[in-house]
Amino acid sequence: MRTARLVTLLGPAFVAAIAYVDPGNVAANLTAGARFGYLLVWVLVAANAMAVLVQYLSAKLGVVTGRSLPEVLADRMSRRGRVAYWVQAEVVAMATDLAEVIGGAIALHLLFGVPLVLGGVITGVVSMLVLTVQQRRGQRVFESVVTSMLVVLTIGFCAGLFFAPPDPGAVLQGLVPRLDGPESVLLAASMLGATVMPHAIYLHSSLARDRVRHDARVREARRLARGDVAAAGEPQVTTIRRLLTATRWDVVAALVVAGGVNIAMLLLAAANLPGRTGTDSIEGAHAAIAESLGPVVAVLFGVGLLASGLASTSVGAYAGAEIMAGLLRVRVSLLTRRLVTLVPAIVLLATGISPTWMLVISQVVLSFGIPFAMIPLVRVTRDARLLGEHRNALGTQVAAWVVAGVIVALNVALLWLTFTA
């Protein structure tokens, strides 16, 4: 596939990758670095490798079948089953939105002193504007906007490394799998268990599906404009193979960026915040960064957090709408969807409950939703009747079940440790 053509097909994975750098990951990465130095670098590397496989399977489903995972599952369920499945997916989507709105509100508070409730409202309003772009300008422009935010948060979260770079030798040692006591086990379980966000699995299949449809319409329009009758006879299987090649590059590139950002946050804390207390909250981590690296790096970190919150809450609302459309076959306006899911987050911010505690609870709810997304994805992508020759090969299937088992087990362990600690 020509390089120029390949570049035009990139994009869906970069939108899905926002889930891997949302505000819920920030405190965990900084805490791991501050408390254990470079010890847990290997955890993030392993997590990212697993995420590449999971997101590729989701995208492959959308490319090959032309349907999203929620749509495929809906065809296999009774009406009651679809409604019950949608309820759990909806609860997970709302928990995701809660974490992301809180992250945006905290960022606005850190940067401008905006009260948390007002910050949550502003975050919701800006996300509405981003979703309006998707509705009025289409998926391509939406992907560009979200990818631009990914660039901003990457700069914001990684900038500190240029002011105080990590020790290369220590980084290499951190790639060796090892742990150091119960607390490191809990942190490792938290970081690995949060590898895959359920809404990212559902959404990626939808994004890949819509990208295929968009590109097919573009190709057809160009063919008609050229009067190229021969191009109409191009075998569909050849087109799918080309799209899957582009999808692999898209997923790898996007998750290299997202994984790199997570690792950068850990390295930043390991190099500059060792032994610091309070890094288990975003506010505490920001204060520690300001004290250790100065106000410029702290501001860049805050900007990165703001971009993370705005992008992830927009993507989360989009995912929720796609889940509803696929399972219930009911499509509502993205703006209506944004308003409905924004209200609980604003109400909780208004109660005065600790934002860090709410982030923890949202991650617990997400853990409950992991098996409902992971297990069906692995099952349907091995179905020859559904994917034909593109079904998972034996090696891929074994790897997928191992990854699913590890992620589900770690989330169960994380739930147990959270409630018994």
TrEMBL record:
InterPro entries: NRAMP_fam. Keywords: Membrane, Transmembrane, Transmembrane helix, Transport. This is Divalent metal cation transporter MntH. It is found in: Membrane. It is a multi-pass membrane protein. It comes from the Bacteria. The chain crosses the membrane at residues 39-63, 83-106, 112-133, 145-164, 184-203, 251-273, 293-320, 332-351, 398-419. PANTHER family: NATURAL RESISTANCE-ASSOCIATED MACROPHAGE PROTEIN 2, SOLUTE CARRIER PROTEIN FAMILY 11 MEMBER. It holds the Pfam family Nramp.
